[in-house]
Write a structure and sequence with these properties.
- It is a single chain.
- By secondary structure, the chain is mainly β.
- The chain has one domain: Maltoporin, Chain A (Beta Barrel), CATH 2.40.170.20.
- It has 4 helices and 43 strands.
- Strand 1 and strand 2 form a beta hairpin.
- The protein is globular, with a radius of gyration of 26 Å.
């Protein structure tokens, strides 16, 4: 796209939007500053400190689309985990992946990745204390021990070690305080929810501190298995985090941290939308199931994630600092997936996932009077492995076994800076060079026997013919390199209005389909194309933004208009096929292709206004127009562009939120304090679960109403809250499976029903 054509159009759109909304109190914005305040006024948002650009800056001064929320603010409105942020951030979808409890599906501005199988890269980077989480398993982080969460929209390659083509979600934990502290938070709510989070820290000397948090998070199921009585959609999580901080001098800070989470929740089975082949009727409760698979190799479902990190921050002089971030992470999952949600074994997939990663990042940050910026190098070595059977007893008793073992080695050099040209103009610039190396082993075979393959619990199974796919890491490897730039201008119109315009590029390396099927002829053109993998994704984004303050800072508005050219979009999928022509699906294959071109444009608004000392209103609005322009497929020997028939998945055209908060002083329990009453209404327009329309699974437009009432003592040592989420008990679909060709299997998964909970927090 030509900047000469694009920028005037964006300027006109932004000006119109600003005129329409600058006087309107709007978005459940942003957080408090990092000092963990319990309430944020409009005036305070101008002093929010974030590290979106890897250096401390005021949120309103960052020339990018960033939303930030403090841990205290999120707890006050009852957000349980980062999935809840999807209601607060424009053009952002964060949700629980299908058939999982703690695997994250994330999309920002139409860019993301739904399938969590081995080797598939995320389109949105999730960071825990600046450490990239290479796999989505266990990435649904609960809101505890958190200082703030930042959501950056658009490509972020010049700032972050790993590719973040769609955006980044930064989860920042609390640093330890200089004084001894103990916090205990207890929760009891609907469906037997019983949570306990205990946090403590202790300085051992003037230079050394230790601390830790342990969290037990449990809840009964929203539904049951109507055959066995087992719970469905329950929660049973035990998590812990420890840290030690060393400050040998005023210019050196060292932090070691480790975390571990064990999720023993039951398998999450979908709601079958169609009658079963044996006459099973559609159930009345959308959270109920008839699923029959609950273990893998005799082990109940379990997801274990853990990580260790070492941070060294050295202030070399008042203008220059050095940071080293060393980290390891890993996870293992036993995942029994029942595709058809029926007790007989019509279609099941016992799976085992494991992954590990090591990363090292070095950064230099400079904060001069005119020049500020960050430069660094990043290295990551990661492995992801998955094994699963697709058990198809109704197809003659077949089990389709797939093994995928994918290695990733990546390194990058990046820099991002800002230079003050004058008191009103600044130039922003950056660049990144990325080298992605990927190797994969894929083994795929069919076994006779409806109890699974030998690897996954059926040693008596006999292989049916030769292996469908048997590719070693010597035969499946690729290297992708790319330089991605960023340029921009900032204009401080006056102390109350900051405008910026930028162009940035993003990149996500090519990858292999870990479920590929080469068929009977591994040297055919189709098989050779699969062996080559798919091309890297690339995006170029123009963005124009305006951040404003009115009425002495009591009203603030942030407006961003963007337009992206999205190329080689990586589209994964899976389908059942008929291999013998008898009209019955008898095999299961994965698909991975590139859609050639797409266009994504939109508008994002965030605002907040304090109308009186007691009453504030906030709002968020996102609109996105995402369309495929080129998607070529072979139909009857001819290449056909089917882009007009495709949709962007997990990308509703409109997202909105309106929140009203009223606060008043009131003494309780013999001490002074303050009440806060918040009501929040969120809206999402129609959402497609896949690129092809599926009316049974796609979700029509819907709204969700949340509310909270919280009392906090004046000394902040005692607080109590009552929270209600989805108070109208709306049933809305968040994911699904479409295997209509096999026993008419179509299942879906729903967001949480109405829940109410009460909490009490004590600080000592």
């Amino acid at each position: 796209m030509s900047p000469r054509k694009t920028l005037p159009k964006m300027l006109r759109c932004s000006s119109a939007v600003l005129l329409a909304f600058s006087g309107f109190p709007g978005s459940l914005v942003h957080a408090q500053s990092a000092n963990d305040r319990d309430s944020a006024t409009a005036e305070e948002t101008s002093t929010i400190v974030v590290t979106a650009r890897r250096r401390e800056e005021l949120l309103q001064d960052v020339p990018a689309a960033v939303s930030a929320f403090s841990g205290a603010a999120l707890e006050k409105i009852g957000i349980p985990d980062i999935v809840g942020l999807t209601d607060l951030v424009p053009n952002t979808t964060l949700k629980t992946s299908r058939a999982t409890n703690t695997t994250l599906t994330a999309f920002i501005r139409g860019v993301g990745q739904q399938d969590p199988v081995a080797g598939y890269e995320q389109g949105v980077g999730v960071y825990l204390d600046d450490i990239y989480l290479a796999r989505p398993q266990g990435a649904i982080l609960d809101i505890y021990d958190v200082d703030r969460i930042e959501v950056l929209r658009g490509p972020q390659g010049t700032l972050y070690g790993r590719n973040t083509i769609g955006g980044a979600v930064k989860y920042v934990t609390r640093r330890l305080g200089p004084n001894p502290e103990v916090r205990a938070k207890m929760t009891y709510g609907s469906f037997g929810e019983t949570d306990l989070v205990v946090t403590g820290s202790q300085p051992l000397s003037d230079t050394f501190r230790i601390g830790g948090t342990i969290a037990s998070l449990t809840r009964d199921g929203f539904g049951t298995n109507v055959v066995t009585g087992a719970e469905n959609y329950n929660k049973k999580v035990l998590a812990g985090r420890i840290s030690a901080e060393f400050l040998p001098t005023s210019s050196v800070f060292v932090r070691f941290a480790a975390d571990r989470t064990v999720d023993d929740s039951s398998p999450r089975a979908g709601y079958r939308l169609t009658p079963g082949p044996a006459g099973e009727t559609v159930l009345e409760n959308q959270y109920d199931t008839r699923a029959g698979l609950y273990s893998v190799l005799g082990h109940a479902q379990q997801v274990v994630t853990h990580g260790e990190s070492l941070l060294v921050n050295w202030e070399l002089d008042p203008l220059l600092s050095f940071k080293s971030i060393t980290a390891t992470r890993g996870s293992t999952s036993n995942a029994p997936i029942d595709f058809d949600s029926l007790m007989p074994k019509y279609f099941e997939a016992p799976a085992i996932y494991s992954d590990r990663q090591f990363s090292q990042e070095f950064q230099f940050t400079y904060t001069g009077a005119k020049l500020q910026g960050v430069a660094g190098v990043y290295f990551m070595s990661a492995n992801a492995r998955s094994e699963f059977d697709a058990i198809l007893p109704n197809s003659g008793g077949l089990s389709l076994y797939t093994l995928a073992d994918v290695d990733t080695r990546t390194w990058a050099a990046f820099a991002d800076g800002s230079y003050s040209l004058s008191d009103t103009w600044s130039a922003n610039f950056g660049g990144r060079f990325t080298n992605d190396q990927r190797k994969a082993r894929v083994f795929k075979a069919t076994y006779l026997g409806s109890l699974g393959s030998p690897t996954l619990g059926n040693p008596a199974a006999v292989r049916f013919g030769v292996a469908d796919t048997d590719m070693s890491k010597d035969n499946l490897q690729r290297t992708d390199t790319k330089f991605t730039p960023k340029i921009g201008l900032g204009l401080k119109l006056n102390p109350r209005h900051n405008m910026y315009v930028s162009y940035s590029e993003g990149f996500k390396g090519g990858m292999f389909d870990p479920r590929m099927s080469l068929g009977g002829n591994p040297t055919s053109p189709a098989a050779l194309a699969k062996r080559a993998g798919v091309k890297p994704e690339e995006i170029g984004t123009y963005e124009l933004g305006l951040k404003s303050k009115f009425d002495g800072g009591r009203t603030q508005t942030n407006v961003a208009v963007f337009s992206s050219d999205y190329r080689n979009v990586q589209i994964p999928g899976s389908l059942l096929i008929d291999t013998n022509g008898d009209g019955v699906a008898d095999s299961f294959v994965g698909t991975l292709t590139n859609a050639g071109k797409a266009k994504v444009s939109g508008i994002e608004l965030e605002a907040i206004a304090r109308l009186t000392e007691a009453f504030s209103v906030s709002a968020m609005l996102g609109y996105i127009d995402a369309k495929y322009k080129e998607w070529t497929v072979n139909q009857a020997g001819a290449l056909v562009n089917v882009a007009a028939n495709k949709n962007f998945q997990n990308t509703p055209k409109t997202t909105a939120n309106l929140t009203a908060t009223y606060e008043w002083p009131m003494a309780m329990f013999g001490r002074g304090g303050r009440f806060s009453l918040a009501n929040s209404l969120s809206y999402k327009s129609k959402t497609f679960q896949f690129e092809d329309p599926l009316p049974l699974i796609d979700q029509d437009a819907y709204s969700v109403w949340d509310a909270s009432l919280v009392w906090t003592s004046s000394d902040r040592k005692l607080s109590a809250g009552l929270y209600g989420r989805n108070l109208t008990d709306k049933r809305y679909k968040v994911a699904g499976y479409n295997f209509a060709g096999f026993s008419n299997t179509i299942t879906t998964f729903f967001g949480d029903p109405r829940t109410v909970k009460a909490t009490v927090e004590l600080r000592f």
